[in-house]
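Structure (tokenized):
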């Protein structure tokens, strides 16, 4: 009987952080974390359109050096992962795929936090510039084809 009670106590202790809105590592649900490979801050991001929404966890490339490196040399990325490049103030930007191993959707996000244009399935290693249609407050990189797979189009709302 003592073994059963001890086992139940261990089980309850393991589940307690989840019951309090925390993951087993003690992070509050939805809290910012750090990506194990890049060391960048990871935040929640949601894309929504026509009553549907999809949630991602994205790395934040804030500094010039972080933005220059981006997803270079990365060999894989989860289906609900990505990287966001915020700009303040908004500006017109171009992205390329130098040293980028995996195809990416390059999603340009206007100052209204809506997708302005997308360069879908950008070819790995390509040095061709992919331009925003106008000023953007951020650029989101996702796995190539992911945006179309989820059915999101220009005009969809992006929140982070």
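Design, position by position:
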């Amino acid at each position: 009987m003592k073994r059963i009670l001890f086992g139940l106590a261990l089980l309850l202790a393991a589940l307690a952080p989840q019951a309090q809105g925390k993951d087993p590592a003690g992070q509050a649900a939805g809290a910012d974390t750090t990506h194990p490979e890049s060391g960048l801050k990871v935040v929640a991001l949601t894309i929504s359109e026509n009553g549907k929404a999809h949630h991602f966890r994205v790395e934040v490339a804030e500094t010039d050096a972080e933005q220059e490196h981006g997803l270079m040399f990365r060999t894989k990325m989860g289906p609900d992962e990505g990287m966001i490049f915020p700009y303040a103030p908004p500006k017109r930007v171009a992205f390329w795929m130098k040293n980028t191993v995996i195809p990416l959707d390059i999603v340009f996000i206007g100052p209204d936090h809506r997708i302005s244009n997308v360069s879908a399935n950008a070819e790995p290693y390509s040095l061709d510039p992919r331009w925003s249609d106008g000023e953007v407050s951020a650029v989101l990189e996702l796995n190539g084809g992911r945006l179309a797979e989820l059915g999101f189009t220009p005009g969809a709302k992006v929140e982070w």
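Reviewer-requested clarification: Strands lie at 33-34, 41-49, 52-60, 81-91, 94-95, 104-109, 115-122, 130-131, 136-143, 157-159. Helices lie at 2-19, 64-69, 146-150.
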